[in-house]
Amino acid sequence: MSTALQRIAALVLLVATLPVLAVIAALVMALQGRPVLFRQVRSGKDGVPFRLVKFRSMRDLRDAVGVLLPDDQRVTPIGAFLRRSRLDELPSLWNVAAGELTFIGPRPLLPQTIADLGDRGIDRGKVAPGLTGWAQVNGNTLLTLDQKIDLDLWYVAHRNIVTDVKILMRTVWVMVAGEKQTLAVGKVR
């Protein structure tokens, strides 16, 4: 799908999901407080930075010296549900509408993470990042960063409409059934 069509589709989906967005925003505000949205600079195509928008799923809890606690200690129950169902990603449709994300591609990483990957980070950035991708439907949080990058690089080298349709179908399945490691890195199904 062309970038222009993806941008239009994202706008249509944003409007269509406004009632769901409103309910989730109200729940996040009631159960976690403000801010409702999480914004963070991520690396886009060719390393161009952009500000990713998601529903907030964690609290800003710190230890006695001010260091953030580990993610698993900061994720709230509503945040865990939003992450598991991928509903925390709905506001990212705005990033698709803005042309910063696509529907399918490697998930956007922090600019420092991309820089630390060296040539692998440059190769990964040859395509626009996406809301969902090959690594997200093949284990995601069950994988190491290296495994995710291997899957992302495989996608960059082999992307096509059949793979994209497969990713879309698997994304729906992951939203319903949860994450499972369905692919051994290096073996593509």
Short description:
With about 190 residues, this protein is mostly helical. The protein contains nine helices and four strands; from the N terminus they run ααββαααβααβαα.
SSE topology sketch:
Layout: H1 3-16, H2 18-32, E1 37-43, E2 49-55, H3 71-74, H4 77-85, H5 93-97, E3 102-104, H6 111-116, H7 119-124, E4 130-132, H8 145-158, H9 161-177
Parallel strand pairs: 3-4
Antiparallel strand pairs: 1-2
Overview of this protein structure:
The structure is a single chain. The chain is mostly helical and 189 residues long. It is built from nine helices and four strands; from the N terminus they run ααββαααβααβαα. The protein has helices at residues 3-16, 18-32, 71-74, 77-85, 93-97, 111-116, 119-124, 145-158, 161-177, and strands at residues 37-43, 49-55, 102-104, 130-132. The strands form two sheets. It has a two-stranded antiparallel sheet. Strands 3-4 form a two-stranded parallel sheet. The longest helix is centred in the last third of the chain and has 17 residues, at 161-177. Mean pLDDT is 90; it is low at 184-189.
Number of strands: 4
Instruction: Give the overall shape.
Output: globular
Biggest beta-sheet profile: 2 strands, antiparallel
Share in β-strands: 5-15%
Low-confidence parts, pLDDT < 50 over ≥5 residues? 184-189
Rg computed from alpha carbons, rounded to a whole number of angstroms: 17 Å
Helices and strands, in order, run as HHEEHHHEHHEHH
Main structural class: mainly alpha
Give the helix proportion (percent range).
40-55%
Mean pLDDT: 90
As for the number of domains, it is: 1
User: What is the spatial order of strands in the main beta sheet?
Assistant: 1-2
